Each structure stands twice: as structure tokens, then as C-alpha cells.
Amino acid sequence: MGRKKAKDSERLTRKLFTRVNERKYAELQALWERTGHNDMSQILRDILYNRPVKTITRDMTLDNAMEELARIRTEIMRIGVNINQITKTFNSYPERERKAFYAKLAFAQYSGIEAKIDCLLEIVGQLAKRWLQA
């Protein structure tokens, strides 16, 4: 589906050409890199029409925390898959000795989650202190 056609009064029919010095061009280039615009002409139109220029900022200090959270999430998911596999095996055997063995295995896997959750809560606590300051 194509985009809607602009009204005749809103169509951009005139071209403007201008020159700027290196300093101003570098300033516009830096502004363009911080916005989600596809080309610089969109930024220039926003400036000409006195529309707000929205910039995208990224907090680089969160990169390490996000990587750690993603790693912990992956580890917890893997432990969960292991527990599910052990539980399936546990339920397939009627003998008490085998059930006890698989229950011990599942408990060992489950106890491995505790350290991951403690680490997760510590990271979330640090993020909460930083972002939820009153």
C-alpha cells in the first residue's frame, strides 16, 4: 500500500539550495545522527517550519547491565529447560528409587537458580536506585 498523496497546498514543489560552512555542516550532521530521520532534508524542514527536532539518546552506561541481564535470563531459561526434561523423565518411571534420583537432580538444578536470581535482584536494585530517584 502506497502512502497518501499530499494536498496541493501542502505539496513540496519548490527546491531551495544553500551553502553552509564546515562548522555548521558538522553541527547539522551531528544532529542528523541523533535523530531517526532518513536524510538531512527532513531535519532542515523541521527547522524551517519551527517543528521540534526529536533526538534519540542512548545511555551507554546501561550496556553492561543489559548484557548481564540477558546472560542471566539465558542461564535461567536453560536451567528451566533442564528441570522440565528431568521432570518428564521423573514422571515416566514408576519406581520410587528412580523417582528419588530424578528428584535429587531436579533439586540440584533448582538450587542453581538461587544464585542467578540473587544476582538478578542486585542488578535490578541498582537500576531502580539510579532511575527511580525521587
Topology of this protein?
Blueprint: H1 22-34, H2 40-48, H3 62-92, H4 96-131
Q: What features would you describe in this structure?
A:
By secondary structure, the protein is mostly helical. The chain has two domains: 16-57, no CATH class; 62-131. It has helices at residues 22-34, 40-48, 62-92, 96-131. Helix 3 (62-92) packs antiparallel against helix 4 (96-131). The mean pLDDT is 85.
Question: Number of helix segments?
Answer: 4
- Largest sheet, strands/sense/barrel: none
Number of β-strand runs: 0
From the N-terminal CA to the C-terminal CA, the straight-line distance is 47 Å
Order of helices and strands: HHHH
What is the typical, i.e. mean, pLDDT? 85
Shape: elongated
Count of separate structural domains: 2
Query: Helicity level, as a percent range?
Result: 55-70%
Structural class: mainly alpha
Report a brief summary of the structure.
It is built from four helices and no strands. With 134 residues, the protein is an all-alpha fold.
